[in-house]
Amino acid sequence: MLFGGMVAHLVGGAVRLGLPDALGEGEATVAELARALDARADTLERLLRALEAVELVAETGPGRYALTPAGHLLRTDHPDSRAAIARFYTDALLLDSWRELPQSVRDGSVAFERVHGTSFFEHLDGHPDRAEMFHAAMADGTRGTARVLPDAYDFAPFSTVVDVGGGDGTLISAVLARHPHLAGVLFDAPGGAARAPAVLEKAGVADRCSVVAGDFFRSLPAGDVMLLKSIVHDWDDERAATILSRCREAVSDGGRLLLVEPMLPDGPGAAGPPVPFLSDLNMLVNTGGRERTRAGFEALCAWTGFALESVRTLPAPSGNTLVEAVPV
């Protein structure tokens, strides 16, 4: 566990060097890679041997390496790429706040605001390079859900889906492509929505999806399905309730609220895999948000005019929970 941070930086460093892309589908010698990456051969070999130890590359011959199946996920051109996530989660933008974890545990304060003097999303507004890194990571993290959600939920009874905080359109594009009867609205802040038109056009759904920029704390476009992926966990209960209240105002009679989020297990001894709990603390120190249990989602829905109707785990490669609620 104590070496886990070093492993994360090993992975992030390999991506920043461009090593996975340099290897691609083939294999190469250390000398060939050193020339391609403008790196010293001796230090690059040390990096490759560490990557081999964590099973991201394999030595196919003396001094010759290729990516393993897991290593291929770090290529930027892989359909399930995690390269942008590797950059984002090993960047000082997030990690500096984690050093302040004890103080956040003591008083509930948001470490990011102490470190950077502003909130996480306000910081992104003023730093376009970091905003680009964030949005790229969110797109990478959405592809798994985009692959399975269109078939995992019955969209047939509805005509309009509003993707609230939909970023570059990865999720709404997949839903619309699978369900030609649907019209879509992608809603996000101006910076978040800027990449969406190109993604919608590439998916062939731009004619059925409008892109609307705005503030989801104030108002939302009307629709039958209000779809929010990885949105409410960014916020504390009060601000999350404000977002869901705007959803309640915008959703049609007989419509649905769909929340795609990690879910913490509930009850004594129900620890489970560590990632949702680590994400919960990441929200604490960086955004002031939190991951929630089923009871937490149920309370949030009841507070904002919804009744929780169902909870299910989405198939791999998503692994997120789909919370469905109806307006009351």
Tell me what the structure shows:
The strands form two sheets. Strands 6-5-4-7-8-10-9 form a seven-stranded mixed beta sheet, with helices on both faces. A three-stranded antiparallel beta sheet has the order 1-3-2. The chain is α/β, with parallel strands linked by helices and 328 residues long. The mean pLDDT is 96. The N and C termini lie far apart (46 Å). It is globular, with a radius of gyration of 21 Å. It contains 17 helices and ten strands. It has helices at residues 4-17, 19-23, 30-37, 41-53, 69-72, 83-89, 92-98, 101-107, 111-116, 120-126, 128-152, 170-178, 190-193, 196-203, 237-250, 275-286, 294-303; strands at 27-29, 57-61, 64-67, 160-164, 183-188, 209-213, 223-229, 251-261, 306-313, 321-327. It is 49% helix and 19% strand.
The percentage of residues in β strands lies in 15-25%
- Listing every helix as H and every strand as E from the N terminus to the C terminus, the arrangement reads HHEHHEEHHHHHHHEHEHHEEHEHHEE
**What would you call the structural class?**
alpha/beta
Number of contiguous helices: 17
Strand order of the largest sheet: 6-5-4-7-8-10-9
Envelope shape: globular
Question: How much is the radius of gyration in Å?
Answer: 21 Å
Low-confidence stretches: none
Mean pLDDT: 96
